[in-house]
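U., I forgot to send this yesterday:
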Amino acid sequence: MKLGNLNIYFFIFGLFFLNIQVVFSVEKIESVPLINLEDLSPTFEEGKDALEKIEDQNTNLNYIENTEEENIIKKDKKIYINIRALDKITAKTSNLRLAIGEKKFFGSLEIKGLKCQLSENSEFRDTVAYLQVKDLASKDNNQVFLFNGWTFASSPTLKSIDHPVYDLWITSCENI
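Result:
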């Protein structure tokens, strides 16, 4: 037998044994039960059921508040700023109704509206509001504003409120 034929036999013999090991190893693989994604708990603080209950209550309250707001607006002459707030971690948005001079809290933010008016231009009208926003999560005695200035309803990114967790933008003003 020549040396070339012997190499071919060793090669075929090696492939045969490698294939046999693969066939026998298939029997040793254990399957893992599938995980139902509905049973996993959320990664943030509150449970899924608690959030759904709060969401249902909020939708009911929003309906009640909307009917009450219509009555209040007719009787009340205060100027209100309507703000939409986004929690980037939970991806939940909330609508805030903030009276001029009043402080409201959203997460660790303290929001104070100082002025709201309509900006009239020859081309279009826009709602603008002067807001002061503090981040109360930092325990610094020399606390400065996270945002202190005018923001526009038509383009909230023009002067944006820069925070890693929360986004705020005005939607409208009432009684102006």
